[in-house]
Write a structure and sequence with these properties.
Layout (H helix, E strand, L loop, with lengths): L3 H12 L13 H13 L4 H17 L8 H16 L15 E6 L6 H14 L4 E6 L4 H11 L18 E2 L7 H14 L4 E6 L7 H14 L3 E7 L4 H14 L3 E5 L8 H10 L3 E5 L7 E3 L2 H8 L5 H11 L2 H12 L5 H14 L2 H5 L10 H19 L3 H5 L1 H6 L1 H11 L3 H25 L10
Parallel strand pairs: 1-4, 1-5, 2-3, 2-4, 5-6, 6-7
Antiparallel strand pairs: 7-8
Helix pairs in contact: 1-2, 2-3, 3-4, 4-11, 5-6, 7-8, 9-10, 12-13, 14-16, 16-19, 19-20
This protein binds guanosine-5'-diphosphate.
Family: Belongs to the GTP-binding SRP family. SRP54 subfamily.
Organism: Rhododendron griersonianum
Keywords: GTP-binding, Hydrolase, Nucleotide-binding, Ribonucleoprotein, RNA-binding, Signal recognition particle
């Protein structure tokens, strides 16, 4: 689970407010200590933690009582809002040139995942219909050039666990005898000739920051006049990542950061500190070794995950990739109005199955955060089971699950027609109502309504 440690440390804070009726100056003292400790443990830098705790405390004391909302829930909401703010509030989109090729210049220290990001980014942009070209400027590491060629080209080299095939983009290389700024220039010319939409320029990484690297980057930047200069940083390095973003920004001027290895057991410090410390947003995050594991950085969803509330929005969005758009909107409406029925259940289930990576999706479904591989296999099996039963229902029963809840006779028929037991049918019916309740609750939070208890 991403940032699992932070999530559970924060839980200590909420639990201290159980039984309280309002938030007071006195009763938030202990929870605030927990929050402070949790953030420091997550490797958020001290000045950031201080400002954060200050901001949360001020709001907590001033907050009015809302009927039906407990003080711990109120504190969760305040912390959530502040986390979103801390991470930059809105998602920060990539900027593209109005005409001619857009140039994305990538910088970063060695081993942070820069080369992998090049290929992932090309894959990501191609999915949006943009043609891309990689330019290999990492002249000090011939291996990096080969790696780019392997990642980017048509050839049949297999690369770790790519599941959607090779990235298939042209890679411009000029060998190792040419200066990076020169390679950049040639690469850009080539891209213009070929009418490429986006040029992704990979540059040399070093183990540490040094003068030569910075000067070289400046030269390349001057040559390319890029629309984006992105620093790739490793989430595992915590607040150090934020410090690097600051340094690179002061030295060469960057437009944002890409945070990699968010799937590992990073503690959260980098994700939480980069914007606040450097003033530059995290634009994209890498969450695995596969080509499709690069996504925009959504502060609100990240906050949701940190607080362990699951993430219905991400979930609905993933489902959208597979389902038709109007279906998904319809689904959202249905969730809100508690009309979510077996048809939706089936549609969604099929979509999830199609998406394959169950574990990823599961992490986003409320209440299913802490799921093991064995449970995932179990879930996949139950998909097959569910499908048979839902198909044995009449259209009316699918739309009105209440019919099945009320009638053992109907459940018996469904069981017989699908070759399952009555108990299995009963379980499925109650599962649907649970799902409905859970989603309703969560959508309530997102709409700014009352906040449900954190865990079911
Ligand atoms: P570079 O030296 O910065 O170019 O780094 P590479 O792109 O060669 O990546 C270094 C290692 O990190 C490789 O083993 C990658 O597979 C791995 N890696 C890169 N991005 C991610 C990520 O988001 N998650 C995980 N788990 N591994 C990654």
């Amino acid at each position: 689970e991403m940032f699992g440690q932070l999530t559970s440390s924060l839980e200590a804070a909420w639990s201290k407010l159980k039984g309280e009726e309002v938030l007071t100056k006195e009763n938030i003292v202990e929870p605030m200590k927990d929050i402070r400790r949790a953030l420091l443990e997550a490797d958020v830098s001290l000045p950031v933690v201080r400002r954060f705790v200050q901001a949360v405390s001020e709001q907590a004391v001033g907050v009015g009582v809302i009927r039906g909302v407990t003080p711990d829930q109120q504190l969760v909401k305040i912390v959530s809002d502040e986390l979103v703010k801390l991470m930059g509030g809105e998602v920060s989109e990539l900027v593209f040139a109005k005409s001619g090729p857009s140039v994305i210049l990538l910088a970063g220290l060695q081993g942070v995942g820069k080369t992998t990001v090049c290929a992932k980014l090309a894959f990501y942009l191609k999915k949006q219909g943009k043609s891309c070209m990689l330019v290999a400027g990492d002249v000090y590491r011939p291996a990096a050039i080969d790696q780019l060629v392997i990642l980017g080209s048509l050839n049949s080299f297999s690369y770790s666990v790519i599941s959607l095939g090779q990235v298939d983009v042209p890679v411009y290389t000029a060998g190792t005898g040419v200066k990076p700024a020169e390679i950049a220039k040639q690469g850009l010319q080539e891209a213009k000739k070929k009418n490429i939409d986006v040029v992704i320029m990979d540059t040399a990484g070093r183990l540490q920051i040094d003068r030569t690297m910075m000067d070289e980057l400046k030269e390349v930047k001057q040559e390319l006049n890029p629309t984006e200069v992105l620093l790739v940083v490793d989430a595992m390095t915590g607040q150090e990542a934020a410090a690097l973003v600051t340094t690179f920004n002061l030295e060469i001027g960057i437009t944002g950061a890409i945070l990699t290895k968010l799937d590992g057991d990073s503690r959260g410090g980098a994700a939480l500190s980069v914007k606040e410390v450097s003033g530059k947003p995290i634009k994209l995050v890498g969450r695995g070794e596969r080509m499709e594991d690069l996504e925009p950085f959504y502060p609100d969803r990240m906050a949701g995950r940190i607080l362990g509330m699951g993430d219905v929005l991400s979930f609905v969005e993933k489902a959208q990739e597979v389902m038709r758009v109007e279906d998904a909107e319809d689904l959202q409406k249905k969730i809100m109005s508690a009309k979510y029925d077996f048809n939706d259940f089936l549609k969604q289930t099929k979509a999830i199955a199609q998406m394959g990576s169950m574990s990823r999706i599961m992490g986003m479904i409320p209440g299913m955060g802490k799921i093991t591989p064995a449970q995932i296999r179990e879930a996949e099996k139950s998909l097959i089971l569910m499908e048979a039963m839902i198909e044995a229902m009449t259209p009316e029963e699918r739309e009105k699950p209440e019919l099945l809840a009320e009638s053992p006779v109907r459940r018996k028929r469904v069981a017989q027609d699908s070759g399952k037991t009555e108990q299995q049918v009963s379980q499925l019916v109650s599962q649907l109502f649970q799902m409905r309740a859970r989603m309703k609750k969560l959508m309530g939070v997102m709409e700014g309504g009352s906040i449900p208890a954190l865990r079911d």
